[in-house]
Amino acid sequence: MRLIALLCLFSLAVQAEKPSFKKWKTPLALGIASGITYNPFAKKIQTKIVAAGHVTPLDDYIQYGPAAMYVGLNIFEYQNEEKAFDQAGVFLLGTGIYVAATHGLKAAITEARPDGTEKTFSSGHTATAFFGATVLAHEYRDTHPEFVIAGYTLATATGALRIANNKHWVTDVLMGSAIGIASAELAYILYPKVRHQWQKLNRFTITPQVAPAYYGASMSIGF
C-alpha cells in the first residue's frame, strides 16, 4: 500500500498540466523520502532519539493554523461573492481529497504507531497543516508572503510535534505532508472542471420581478 501511495503521487504529477508540473516536485520528493525512511533502521534511530511519552498537545491545535489564516484573510479581504465561492470550492474539494487519502491509507495499513496504538500511516495532522499552508500560498504568496511563511512554519512544527509526541514515525509525517500539498495542487487543477459540470447541471433559474403594478417571477431552463 505504501508503494501504491507513491505511485499515485507520481501518476498525478505526470498527468498534471505542464505549467504546474514543477509544483509537484515537492510532494514527490516528500513521498520518495517517506519510502526511503520506511525501514527498521530509521525507526530504531527515531526510538533512540525521541523520548517516550507525550510532550505537548499543541499539535492538535496548530494543525489548523494555516487554514485559519486562509479563512481569516478571505474575510478581511472580501472581494466578491463569486471569488469567495471559488475559494471555498477549492478548499472543500482539497479537504475531501486529503481526508479520503489519509483515512484510506490508515484503514488499509494497520501498522502500529511509536506509542503502540494502531493506524500510524499516514499523518492526518500533518496533511491538514500542509494542505492549509499550500492553499494559503496559492492565494497570498504575492500579497502576504509573511503569512505564507508562517503557514509552512506551523505545518512543519505540526509534523515535528507528531514525531516528538510519539504519535508518528518520520515516514508517516513525510507522506502526510506530501498528501497535504498534493491535495491542494490537485484541487486547483480539478475545481474548474468540477464547477463547469456543476453549472451545466444547474441551468434552472428563477428570477423575481417586481413593478409598481404587479409582482411575479420568470423561470428559465437551459438545454
TrEMBL record:
Keywords for this protein: Signal
Residues covered by the Phosphatidic acid phosphatase type 2/haloperoxidase domain: 88-188
Signal peptide: 1-16
Domain of life (superkingdom): Bacteria
Keyword Acetylation: no
Record's keyword annotation contains Signal: yes
Gene3D superfamilies: Phosphatidic acid phosphatase type 2/haloperoxidase
Protein name: Phosphatase PAP2 family protein
Coiled coil: none
InterPro entries: PAP2/HPO (IPR000326), PAP2/HPO_sf (IPR036938)
SMART domains attached to this UniProt entry: acidPPc
